[in-house]
Amino acid sequence: MNRSSVDYTKVVETCNSLHGLISIGTLNFHSLPTEICALQGIAVDDQRWKWLDHEFLNQCYRGNIHPVFKALAFLIRHRYFTATFKVFQVSVCDRLLPIAIAKVRIYAVPLDIEGARYIRQWRQKWLAQYLSREFRSNWLVLMKVLDYSPRGWHGCSHHCTIDDFVDDSVLILPLNGSDKYIDPFLCPSSFHFTRWLDQLQYFVPQNRSEESLDTVVLRIYNNVAVPDMSGYKNREFKKKLGLASSGDLITSLINEYPYNSAVLPGVLSTLYPFQVKSLCRMLEKETLVQNLPVPYFKMIVSPSGKVYYFDMLDPGFYLNPELYTCPRGGILAENMGLGKTLICLSLICATKFDISTVPDNLMLYHDQSVRGKENTRRPGMKSLADICQDTIGQNSLPWKFFQDDLPQSVIDKLSRTNGFFRIGLTYSANQYGLRTKEKRMEQDEYQTLFMSNSTLLVVPENLFHQWNHELNKHIEPSYLSKLFVSDRFKQPIHNSNSTYTDNIPENVDQLIAYDLVLITAPLFARLSKKKSCTLRGLYWKRLIIDEGHSMSSKSSNLSILCNSIYAERRWAVTGTPTSGLTNLYMDEEEQIKEQSVEQSPSKKREISSYFKVEPFHSQPKLWNSAIVKNLSDSTFSTESNLKSLLDSLMVRHNLADVESDLKLPQLHHEAVFISPSYHNKLSINLFTAVLAVNAVSSEREGSDYMFDPSNRQQLRRLVNNLQLSTFYWTGFQLEDVKTLIGIAKHCLKKTTPAGDPFFGNSDRELLQRSLSAAYEAIHNPGWRTASMLHEMQYFVQGLPYPFIRTYGLGVLESLGLGVFGAPHLAAIQEFYYKNRFMDMDDETALTAKLESGSQKFWENYWNDSARKDNSKFKKQESTHDFDVHGLKEALEDDFRQTRGDFKISPSRSSSGSQDWNSTRDSLTNEVGGGLKITGEKKLVHNVVSGADVKKATILGSASAKLSYLASRLVDHQRQGVKSIVFFEFEDSAYYLTELLDILGVNYILYATFIGAGQRSNNLADFDSHNSEALGGITLIMDLRLASHGLTIISATRVYFLSPVWQRSVEAQAIKRAHRIGQTHEVYVETLVLRDTLEEEIYKRRERNEPQQEKSDTARQYVIDDTGMQQFILKHNFLPTEGGESEYASFTALDLNGGENEQPDENVDSLLSHKSVQVLQNHTWYKNWRMYLFNPDNLQKLNAAKKQKASLEQLNSELVEGKPEMASRKIPHKQRKRVRF
């Protein structure tokens, strides 16, 4: 007998041994060739199951066999499968003869079965690519029709009824059939793959729509396994005098905490039960070595109850899976506000004495020597002390746990003796005996790594102060030895157990001495350029990256350096990596933003690289082929692959798990609808007019039409400016509006060849309304001045005329009011405080002093305006000017060519820059420093005595939102309330801060143009502000900076200046204040300008339309939403009334229930802002009287003149905390006034 026949005999023996094969499922065939043969065969067992002879059946039908059977025949022929069959006589009814139905059992031959090598050798007669391709295609045919259920496998008796044979649904195929098989229901392969995993029979799904990638990823995140520590419940353990093992520590935490706080030493705060579970799961992951199947090996239970595995990357059946070792660490992905910082600090304290050990997966260099020195043999025999010392260091024994019981001489020796090992620099960790390709690497260079008990924590610059604050708040000061490293500490600061510096110690022994090394991410990334950085010389016990989403950039210095740092345990701390909430009060994972979802799988690839998860770390391309490629729409869906990987990495709870442990104070969120001011209406109507005239003149087609797809960028910019106008807008120039008027008139005059109006009645009505809006704007003196100076207009009552003439921007003659900008009011305030002893009834002397001061003011004002510094935080100037996209030039061309059609074109032809010299010449008086408009007007009724100047009142502003919000913030300062104002547009924040300075309201900025270090200082100042002694304060924050990590629980009032289009961004911002640690109810208000684009945005968000929201409101830009486009195309003009007030008064809802304030008793003091309660429609309102000269403003001016705190002082305050004021808040009616 030759060798080939012997090998084939082994193949047959292996494939015919059913006990070693995998039962997959069953097929049912009718139309059996009983008239040709009796279908007898070789019996398998005594249950009438026989071996299936596919060649014989093919000959019986002369090749006209069903495609499913053909696929089965190929797989049997090449020894991938083996099949048996049994014929059942199924009775349909009593009148008909039974039908013969053959049930075929399908068995897979595992690729790792004993004797598999004979099968592989035998298959070498065919090309490997051919076999792989044909196996995959034929298996897909079978996979779609197999019955995987246990009932279908075991079947029924030989003679049975159709009811016994059929359970719910069953697929019975004809044995003969056409050459081409078409699935009549066109179900995707992924559906049948899921049916296979769930052991289901064949059925047709009711909903066969394909799922998008975002839906799949959303489902994965929502179903990530919650930490289950029930195995430790009631487990017995013996308390030891020494250091408890990780298992004992987890058991004690589960069973004794929080009744026995000694279980978690060093932690002052009490953890919630879900936080304890997360902590225990992290401890378990760090200490329990776990081997799991690689994600692309899917575990399946056969119909007979046997477990097997299917390789979805290279399709094949296995009895045993490929394994990978789970990393010692993972992703702490608790939702925003659930105390991730405290959990991490508790983990560090719980494992304080653990020391990293020599890894068992690295090839170590045998001839070890410390710090590169040659290892020379010591003369004579080692002393017992030396042996003990080396043993303790090399075996990572936790000697520091017994430090209090050791002599100082022993402590000194052990501190200088650190365990170490050496590795090859080219060696890749975590290489195991995978079936994938293995590479042999040469080790020419080596590096010495010293084992330590230190944790390296990398945090964003803006969260540095928060980690410092949380450490001081939650951890005993003396429990951990801490090193804080940041660029801000130019001079080192040392206090008890903490060192603050801007550099890493060059000596490894000094670095190892710290339990925690906290370093800012920018400095950490910069160290990647230094090959000799001490950070590389340690085998850290733990590496933690806060806000781990920053790891998504593979090419970033942070990512590179993290991969070059050697650490025994690795953690990434981040909120759940999904976004796109559809309901603010839903779980954070219930919706996911499309853009984030598309990037999410690739970000997980970088996470797998950070954790060195095999085989993806050594084979980066494997991630896309094994996970991402087949995630949403594929033959073998990899959804379960990604889920199993995330289950092994992520530690998180869902909302339902947390709610039973944690009850946050009530969150109140409402929209406040504000009627637009007169100037709001002018600006919004001008935008509407521009869009209306564009629609008419372009006849709503072609590239001239603003809504043409080619103009998407210009349209987005215009709609963005329209959103700006709901707060305040001065970007239209006078010439722009005049051009718009000319175009509208031209369109109205345009006629057809027959002499009829060219445009229809509806379009002509749009043009007429556009003209009315344009004329109303250019005939308003305040609008004209604001369009040139870009100042917010404030309307002041009670100032003598000389003040208005020298500093004013305009006058309202009928009311005797002066109109000013914020810089002008600030100059007047400073003038008044400096000249408080002057006799202001002497108009001549007063005028002379005012003219002298105003000339210098105006000169500086014009110079500053012309210079247009590089500040990113400023009022609207040329960068915000509205350009009518070349309309002026086009209009002139049209007048020269009367026959040519004229259209508003979106193409931009000019920069729209403003000539400040010409603006100055056109506005200013030839004599004096004031404006012409104030010099031309004489207020007859403006008679104010000198003693009454201090009673000058700011009646309101040109912005309805600004007046409302200022009223709120003044009230909060009185009540000692901290608040947050979120803004999307810097213009709005600029105007708000100007007014708050005028009114003397405390605020702190947190914006992008402020450096990360200064932002950290600002946040610390806000947290430490003593509201009881100093009154309330507001944090004015850029919404872009409010999405991750920040904790601002000292604030209880939150304001959004406008509706936020993406609700996930809004929810993240609210979570800054409404999170763990908040003890008061949080009130959130979203300001919405009534009857404008903002109200439509708010309505669109509030509608319960999941499908529409998924496709529209999840989009990045407002104008991309079809509903918003339809609203804008309605061209709704806001009505204005004759005699309408030009200012929005300072009015807001009363938060105190109608309590009136006591009047000021001392007539010599500055007057504080007062409010009068008014009852309207059963609701109390506060009408505020804002005094121009007030004690709060004077106090801010005096504070601003003081020397700015140095960096050293700020660092000292950060480290030691700001000194608390001893005084408590004085009731308003008892406060002392500033006297003159």
UniProtKB/TrEMBL annotation:
Keyword entries, A-Z: ATP-binding, Hydrolase, Nucleotide-binding
Domain spans labelled Helicase C-terminal: 964-1113
Molecular function terms, GO-annotated: ATP binding; ATP-dependent activity, acting on DNA; hydrolase activity
InterPro entries in alphabetical order: Helicase_ATP-bd (IPR014001), Helicase_C-like (IPR001650), P-loop_NTPase (IPR027417), SNF2-like_sf (IPR038718), SNF2/RAD54-like_C (IPR049730), SNF2_N (IPR000330), SNF2_RAD54_helicase_TF (IPR050628)
A GO CC annotation given for this chain: nucleus
Pfam families: Helicase_C, SNF2-rel_dom
Gene3D superfamilies (UniProt xref): P-loop containing nucleotide triphosphate hydrolases, Tandem AAA-ATPase domain
Protein name in the entry: CIC11C00000003952
